[in-house]
Amino acid sequence: MKTKLFQYVLLAAALLIAFIAGTIIADQSETDLTSQVVSEEKAAKDVADWGTFYAYYTGQTFGTREALNGVAVIKPGREIHPPHRHAEEEFLMVIEGEGEWHVNGKDFPAKKGDILYAAPWDIHGIKNTGKTELRFVVWKWNNKGVDIPADPQADEK
Questions:
Q1: How far is CA 126 from CA 19, 25, 55, 80, 85, in A?
Q2: How far apart, in whole angstroms, are the C-alpha atoms of residue 44 and residue 14?
Q3: Are 69 and 57 in contact (CB under 8 A)?
Q4: pTM
Q5: 6-45 confidence digits (pLDDT tens)
């Protein structure tokens, strides 16, 4: 009798685990980005006093979470925000205009074709110092299956 009861409990537990796993997998596939092309007209557009940001992709992919891909168009003499830091890895590529990179306390000229990589928690930014718009592409994300690195300044706060 105890053996039959134990088998039923195991079966019920297995079904529950299968249901939960199926729900997680279904939820994940519903939020993963799919292969597609997004035009500038279809990108989410945010107009601000510093310029315009076009968010092409946000969310998660097969291997990333909290992903963001977009294009920023910064007006001359402006910046999106002062140099900043965050847990996500990030690439920025200047595709038009010129400006100034800021990386961990140092400033460098920024020009068309330059790519910046910012590791988690490194201070970085870009400012338009030119006379025309500065346009850059951004890719930012955290990886699935990889712990978000601890903020090295968390103890200082």
A1: 47, 38, 18, 8, 12
A2: 43
A3: yes
A4: 0.77
A5: 444 333 433 333 333 343 333 344 468 889 999 999 999 9
